[in-house]
């Protein structure tokens, strides 16, 4: 039985890299003081270099999640249930789409620097108001978040991660979305998610899970029935 590609070790390395890069990006981000476009632009214009660095870390963090998602799907596919099928589909769609959307940060930075605040806000809000942009944004963001969480649950169910890992990641996102936008929720919630992903990544790198040959065995219901005599 051939080993899956990407290998569990490479998958784990990508998962750890993704978690660390994303958390650095969140911590470096110049967060706005309130949830308005004007406040967001003011934060970007006040810290232009910091904003570019944060967007770059976040971009490559989600880029690293993509091969990790492919690797988890490849590793668990022979015995994967609905968690893996739904989570893998959402995660792959999300992680290959979301990195490209971060280029918007550079456009918003340019608007904030080159136009009066009211005009910059008007242009940015108009761009966000186009109906079809939701076709890009919703699958990317929802897929990346929900998909990666489901993959962590799939790793737990397949004995490749401790039980606390997916629940810690969920708790991290709950903190992020429950608290007002800013550094604190991402420092706390992002750290929970990062630790959870890194733990799963270390287990994959060390091969601390079921034997790959056992993981690759089909379920009994997948074994073809013998041919009729």
TrEMBL record:
UniProt entry keywords in alphabetical sequence: Membrane, Transmembrane, Transmembrane helix
Parts of the chain that traverse the membrane: 51-77, 89-107, 134-156, 163-180
Protein name stated in the entry: DUF4386 domain-containing protein
